[in-house]
Amino acid sequence: MTTPDLIPVPASITDPASFGFAACEGGVCAAAGIRATGVHAGFRADPNRLDMALVAADEPCVCAATFTQNRFCAAPVQVSRPRAASGHAQAVLLNSGNANASTGEPGVACALASAACVAKELGCADEDVLVASTGVIGVQQPLWPFEQAMPAAVESLAHSPAAAHAAARAVMTTDTVPKEVSLEGTVPCGPDGAPITVHVGGFVKGSGMIMPNMATMLCVLATDAPLTAQAAQKALSAAVSVTFNKVTVDSDTSTNDSCFLLATGATGGEPIDCDSTAFAQVANAIRCAAEQLARKIAADGEGATKLVTVDVVGAATDADADTVARAIANSPLVKTAIFGHDANWGRVAGAAGKCGVVFDQYQVDIDFLGVPVLRAGLPLPMDEGDMLRRFEEPEVTIAVNLGQGDASARIWTCDLTHDYVTINGDYRT
């Protein structure tokens, strides 16, 4: 019997070589004109745990941002959203250990005052400082850690991989590892289209309470490409829509999600606007960085042992594809089967069929772990021993073809384990 071909799925953009970039060192500090630090300010009791990060440009620069759509948005989001809308900023201040969410006017006042602490030490305008927080909801955030730690934090700002790494560590909550990325490549933005080397780097935190829009995540990206404000926002919004907004660990959306992009233009060259020849290449680099970080969020989901990639193709509309993919990715039965190394494709079919999207079950194909298991709605023979061996890989892939059209969607998630319950049952203690 001939083995059916695998379902064709959209190409990934995680390989920077596909658009002329390569991995490099530096994290968020890979971008020229960016300094960073991570310190212990006092939000957490453990003096050895970093809990405040600061990323600062050498001077005010282009800025773009996206934020949570949760109606219970936190005070830092309320402060940073209108500031980022100006299209410029100089610094991003982040803390872990306290979300400053559902804290009313005192919370907003604290967020404003914390930004003022940064502005005083950097010598910039208060409005050029953006703020973000992560941690427990509903607890008033103290100002004294910001006041106490800020002079030394600003003094310790550095343009180095170590400084970038410290910033990435300082925003971790239930994350088990810091999550960073940095890329470099040449783009035609010099005089007469001459090539100039530019960088994109950044970090993200996120492990639980993850589903768009965006995911419990704080992210800072930076580039030294000379993007205009409009180009920076277009590139970031497009990247977020297909990366951070396609991650789900547990279907819950945070109150604090924030993603910032600082574009220093420190490499020089002609301004890159949305119509520039170089725009697509830089936008791809930003998307690639975001996709790598998004996959790291899913792989580090609370208690997770597997990164799971769900592709749905052949849908009538993009919305249908997204709905089906999310139904599969959020299904506790699918996620626990993966944790148990059970290639139970029936749970995938059931999740797809329950979500309200119209399709003919006898036109549906499913691949599980890179193996065809369902064609035209009917099961194929499956070698259980081979499937168990495939579960040894760190990533589990699921592909579904609905046979209804040309639309597709990709969602990243993880398995659901005993540890997820333990972590979230004890979160406030």
Write a concise synopsis of the structure shown.
With 429 residues, the chain is α+β, with helices and mostly antiparallel strands.
Describe the structure.
By secondary structure, the protein is an alpha+beta fold. It has two domains: 19-299, L-amino peptidase D-ALA esterase/amidase (4-Layer Sandwich), CATH 3.60.70.12; 307-425, ArgJ beta chain, C-terminal domain (Ubiquitin-like (UB roll), Roll), CATH 3.10.20. It is 31% helix and 26% strand. The protein has helices spanning 75-84, 104-122, 144-156, 161-170, 229-242, 279-299, 318-330, 332-339, 345-354, 384-390, 418-425, and strands at residues 21-23, 34-39, 52-67, 88-98, 129-136, 179-188, 195-205, 218-223, 258-263, 307-315, 365-368, 371-375, 378-379, 395-401, 407-414. Strands 1, 2, 3, 4, 5, 6, 7, 8 and 9 form a nine-stranded mixed sheet that branches. It has a six-stranded mixed sheet with strand order 13-12-11-14-10-15. A hairpin with a 2-residue loop joins strand 11 and strand 12. Helix 1 (75-84) crosses helix 2 and helix 7 packs across helix 9 (345-354). The longest helix is centred in the last third of the chain and has 21 residues, at 279-299. It is globular, with a radius of gyration of 22 Å.
